[in-house]
Amino acid sequence: MGDLRVEISAKRVRAYFGGELVADTTAPRLVWEVPYYPAYYLPLSSVRVELKPTGETKDGGLVHDVVTRGGTAGGAALTYPDSPDLRDLVRFEFGAMDEWLEEDEPIYVHPRDPYKRVDVLNSSRHVRIALDGVTLAASTQPRILFETSLPPRFYLPLSDVRFDLLRSSDTQTRCPYKGTADYWSVEVGGVVHEDVVWIYRSPLPESQKVAGMACFYSEKVDLFLDGELQEKPKTPWS
Fold first, then answer.
1. Residues 127 and 101 in one domain
2. How far apart are CA 179 and CA 1, in angstroms?
3. Of 1, 13, 22, 191, whose CB is crowded by the most CB atoms within 10 A?
4. Which residue range(s) make up the domain with 71?
5. For the chain, what is the domain count?
6. C-alpha span between 237 and 219 (Å, rounded)
7. At 29, phi and psi to the nearest 5?
8. What distance, in Å, lies between the first and last C-alpha atoms of the chain?
9. Do 88 and 188 have their domain in common?
10. What is the pTM of this model?
11. Is the torsion defined by CA of 119, 122, 126, 127 positive or negative?
């Protein structure tokens, strides 16, 4: 690896697999491998199970299987013995573990970035959502979710959404700051636009104010704010 941003976290972090504690540390490292969010690297001394070398390499690191009494997570651990910053650490593939805890609370998708903030504010601004010239929702009671480095998201009461245009979807996504989202597609003029709307029915505590409200991808619809059409943001979902 090249130059890395590495910080020590004060949180206790635990990872579980196969019903067994894989690692337990009060000195995890946050490593920004990509600009958008960090990964956890844990001290090798905190590992409670066998890390079995596979003889393979990935991203310049040595690949290991994580072996527990309850099963094996193939290729789920990486070490970097030649790296000055990472030589005494191991990175477990986040999704390969059964559970991650920060202190005593589960985390999902990836570690929370300590420099990312989520604020949810009540608003009386008029929000109208349209697609192909058809109004999908209109409200003067939005809650606006401001999340660092992302565009504002406008969550609307379900009573202000045209449910006759929504179509159920099996899609779910998880966010480490908001929780699990369920989705609807939208049908306009006989055309189905997949997974345009989401809802957090039971969001995480910091996002409770958007519970049970609908949000439209402003990248995929026309969003009018106080009567003015907003420019579509450029994001990974554009």
1. no
2. 31
3. 22
4. 5-106
5. 2
6. 7
7. -105, 135
8. 30
9. no
10. 0.85
11. positive
